[in-house]
Amino acid sequence: xxxxxxxxxxxxxxxxxxxxxxxxxxxxxxxxxxxxxxxxxxxxxxxxxxxxxxxxxxxxxxxxxxxxxxxxxxxxxxxxxxxxxxxxxxxxxxxxxxxxxxxxxxxxxxxxxxxxxxxxxxxxxxxxxxxxxxxxxxxxxxxxxxxxxxxxxxxxxxxxxxxxxxxxxxxxxxxxxxxxxxxxxxxxxxxxxxxxxxxxxxxxxxxxxxxxxxxxxxxxxxxxxxxxxxxxxxxxxxxxxxxxxxxxxxxxxxxxxxxxxxxxxxxxxxxxxxxxxxxxxxxxxxxxxxxxxxxxxxxxxxxxxxxxxxxxxxxxxxxxxxxxxxxxxxxxxxxxxxxxxxxxxxxxxxxxxxxxxxxxxxxxxxxxxxxxxxxxxxxxxxxxxxxxxxxxxxxxxxxxxxxxxxxxxxxxxxxxxxxxxxxxxxxxxxxxxxxxxxxxxxxxxx
Length: 446
Prior knowledge:
about 450 residues, 22 helices, mainly alpha, elongated
């Protein structure tokens, strides 16, 4: 980078000495680009503004368009996506060259995607495709970005189609490419979501082969991670654990604690599925030790620990873990639905401990959250659990009331016949007790 910057500065000095305005403006633009690549964004913006002034004085619209594009790239690098989009729009208004416009629309699409505007992003990327008549790397890059947009929209089939197009355009280009590996990787992930496990495995294998050649440790760890997901879906648990462990080994070498934590959590999940609860707990605790910053992931880890302790019938520790998950989750606005689940599960563990008043308190908190969010299925589940607690307290009228509310909600939900039958059976006992008590009260009156 230093060498490139030095060359640009020498070119700038020569252009200033010769009074070459066009050369000077170009040199300022090249210096700004070099600084952007180095991540020195503020200095890049200062230099690029000098290039803007010169191109404005010369009324060089194409020159201005190129500088505004680089400014957009700088703002994108700074994660100031709204300012990046504004700069790209100005560049579009100034340029008449199709190849330049295609590049601008392509970059703007990526910024719009990062900004959370997927539909606008797709529109910009489609414009880039229509302008980019050259078949090859530029087209592959646009299709890759389209695939990423659909990936995050959850539109798996469209994402797969776009990644396949990206791969097809890259096959005629020599050499290995990180974006090609990522196209295979993300396509494999989407194929797995569609249940196409063999196709997902093939795609992941191709991604892994490319990443091994490139030697990109982060990408290589991700490849093993996705492989592990595929093996898990195929119920090849030992291979899944092996793949996660390979990802951990790479993350240890690269010092990526966050990656290690995620993969320890994943191994814990696999072991939990196999019923190896103590081993699963060890993995979750390792994940917790490594993850000191990411609140969302700490919430998930504590929840998993709570579930494992509940399965081990160590309900007191289960309650403690769920409480930790709640304490952290309450500080995350997006975790409210999860908190309802934590309260529900904590209520069940408290029920098992015989702490029935505390169990009711937790279950009612879960119910309140689910009523606010409109989650009918979970409301029915909460009422069911509340009814079970009231049964243990011999509060038969309240138990029947809770069970009836659960039944009423379930009748509006398809595919709950089995749950309704179970509820009906559970409701029989408190209902019978109530009937007998009423009969007894009537006899006593006579």
